[in-house]
Each structure stands twice: as structure tokens, then as C-alpha cells.
Write a structure and sequence with these properties.
Elements: E1 2-3, E2 10-11, H1 16-19, E3 23-27, H2 35-44, E4 50-51, E5 60-61, E6 64-68, H3 74-79, H4 85-91
Parallel strand pairs: 3-6
Antiparallel strand pairs: 1-2, 4-5
Length: about 110
């Protein structure tokens, strides 16, 4: 067990990236992530291949496939300063762009 940094509570919690080790972590509506959470996510994305907690003195190696989805234009958001540049480039490794259903009426049955 480890002691929490600020509260002194004793607990063993596994983070999202550790839970997804050797698997896939899906971030839905990544364009709506609050700035504080975006900073934490950018620090822990697979580009670093490691995960750490605030109270930890060491990092753990993780192997995570990260899939993110959004209906917003992250490029414009990044240019306007509404989305973190570092997170954008870590997520934009292999983009798959799918047009909205309103533009694909042929596929709707």
C-alpha cells in the first residue's frame, strides 16, 4: 500500500492507462475534455510509453492502444488555443475521418 500525497489516505488505485495495459483505451468526445484533464492525458499518452501517479517516485511501462473520437474540428480548436497542441499531435498519429451521417444518407436504411 502507498500513502496518498496530500490527504494521507492509504489506498492502492490503478490508473486508467495501467488498467488498459496490453489493451485499448477509448476516449469519447476528446474535444470536450476539460483543460486540466487534457494536461494529465497528454502527460500519460502512449507517446511516452509510461504511466505515473503524483505520489509515485517511479514510472511504469504501459502498452496501450489509444483510440479517440470527437465531432469537433481539433485542428481549429488547437489553432485557437482551445485544445492542447501536445495532445493533438499525440492523438493524430493515424487519423480516420468519417463524415457525419447527414452527409452519408445513402448508408442510412
Amino acid at each position: 500500500m502507498k500513502k496518498a500525497l496530500l490527504s494521507g489516505a492509504i489506498a492502492q488505485r490503478i490508473g486508467r492507462f495501467e488498467m488498459a495495459d496490453k489493451g485499448t483505451l477509448f476516449l469519447d468526445e476528446v474535444g470536450d475534455i476539460p483543460p486540466a484533464l487534457a494536461a494529465q492525458t497528454a502527460a500519460r499518452t502512449p507517446g511516452t510509453k509510461s504511466s505515473s501517479d503524483w505520489a509515485d517516485t517511479h514510472t511504469r511501462q504501459v502498452d496501450v492502444r489509444l483510440v479517440a473520437a470527437t465531432n469537433r474540428d481539433l485542428t481549429d480548436m488547437m489553432k485557437q488555443g482551445d485544445f492542447r497542441t501536445d495532445l493533438y499531435y499525440r492523438l493524430n498519429v493515424f487519423p480516420i475521418r468519417i463524415p457525419p451521417l447527414r452527409r452519408r444518407s445513402v448508408t442510412i436504411v
